[in-house]
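Now for one record.
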Amino acid sequence: MAKNALLIFSLSLAASVNVFAQEISSGDQIEDPKKMEEIIIFGTKLGLTVQDSDVSVEVFDAMRLEREAIFDLDDVLLRSPNVAISGDTTSMTIRGINRNGASGGGQGVTSNVYVDGAPAASAALQFGVESVWDVAQVEVLRGPQSTVQGRNALAGSVVISTADPTHEWEIKSRLRAAQYNTEQYALAVSGPIVKDQLAFRIAVDKQSTDGFIDNVASGRSLDQDYADTLTVRSKLLIEPNVLPGLRIELIYEDTDSELGNSSSRVSASVPVTDPAFRDYDPTEGNTFADYSQNSIDVQRSIADIAYSLTDNLQLNGLFTYEEVQRDNLLGNLKDLSLFPNNGFNDDSVETFSAELSIQFNYDRLTGRVGTYYYESEDSLLFDVSAPFFDAIPNGIPGISLDPADSQIIARVTDGTQTDNYAFYAQFRYELSDSWTLAAGLRYDHEEFETTGLQNLLEIEPSSCLITVPGNLVGMPGSPGLSLACTAVLPSDEVSPPQAESYSAWLPRASITYHHSEDISIFLSVQRGYRAGGTYVQSTILDGIPVTLQESYDPEYLTNFELGLRTYYPDHALTINGSVFYSTLEDQQISLPGPTGNSLDVFTANVGETEIYGLELSSSYAATDSLNIYASLGLLHAEFTEFPFATQVPDSQFFTLNGNEPELAPGITFSIGMSYKHASGAFADVNV
């Protein structure tokens, strides 16, 4: 199945102004535009080129992003073999492994996005679109990256590196218009403050669209997937002459987004286990459909410090802080004019990370040794209100409320704190001119604590009275019994805090054979993991309602990979490929309990998956203006162990063994060509 089912044609005009241009002296050589330059990847933290690396990676440098008219991270993922998304970045799968796990169980994720070294919180990715305006490079690394990056890298990772300040003036801009009232206004300015010592860069990107999804459940066009995003990023580069070898880069980025949802929820009239569900039409007869509005503010601060102690040693320090505030408004589409049911989500996430490392390069031996600390605090407040009458069972006549429009309010609060400590080391040793041996090891320790879930019910106004007919309370003929509405509310649900900790050793090793300067082959094995966590389950034991606090263990991935790297710079051709085999064990699976209610859910390490496949990527500069590119991904992912429970009498269990995970297409491919005229106009056609 093609990754893009539609043929996309993009035609854009780009304006670029170089205020100052470097003069070419008589001794300078003008490079052949067709001759390709080697690309350094940052995700491995060793400064390796793509051709020297021993990982499967799809790289989008600034030239490729512009040439192929790629405007956001979703476009990048859609053009990467064996990578798929549905809705937003948080749903991405890498080699058949969903970022949120096979069934949504687990509190960590299997892959993460890094922006200039800062791990992006899920709340920042869930509804937002990560713009690639003024981005120097995006890397999609497939396969476990846990040895290098630690937590949340079991399936792979996405590494975004934004453009650095320059010591020469540079200005570029973009104006873009497309269907559905899609618009983009972007500007980037860079230049010196103190010659060769202090430089700045400022990038601004404004994007908006009405979206292409109409909510058919309501029968009205709502532009439900609208988006309006403003990103401002500032960077300061410090390279003081008084301290040669010191490089400090300070980054601040602020993204404000107003977004709708790409989908609605509906309540089906039949359960999914009923054969009649296959014929169920979600646009007819549904009882519930959400219209969601999201306001997201992401602020990110980064300090990236490097100091060359000697010609062979470099000290590195990376410090990041991210704050995400997500407000979510939810309205019910039963009556668009009144919105009688509404909700409010307030999700606040703060993350801090610090990494100190020493990088060394001694002739045949290179490597990096470092320590890492990560801290995250996530607090959630969820309010939902509805008319009190909606909570009264249908078919009970004679019940009345005073006032009649009284509301029932459910207020849920929850919070988590995560602390992660790690030590890692990785080495590369050139055994000879033809053979290179690489090895790495990481010790990762994670502590997880919840503040305790609180589910409280309130009535507004608090003076609300409910009158129940006398025949329902054993007083036939009586006009009824009046009670405070609060008297008929269910009890509040409160769970105490939980705390767990997990540790893991994460090794990797590879050997590379260099057939020539242009061709190399590598064989690697590596281990990835996703930390365990805790859950609260409201269920029934021996006929008594109870609240259980339990925990589950980490899940692990072992990956074997054989890769080919070919690089012909004089012919402007690259062909890279990998074949891999992985086993995913102790998967964290979310299962329903016996009562069938939404809180009777538990997580267990009961899943196993077998994964193998192939990835190919190639690029060829046919002329100075025309580039042809193609990629192919073949994937087989199959559950070898996956118990599942249906919410039917006796909670019968059956197995999903032999099935493939969701969003794990067997074939993904992309092929296209791009053309850029000397005037700056360019076109891209791809499938």
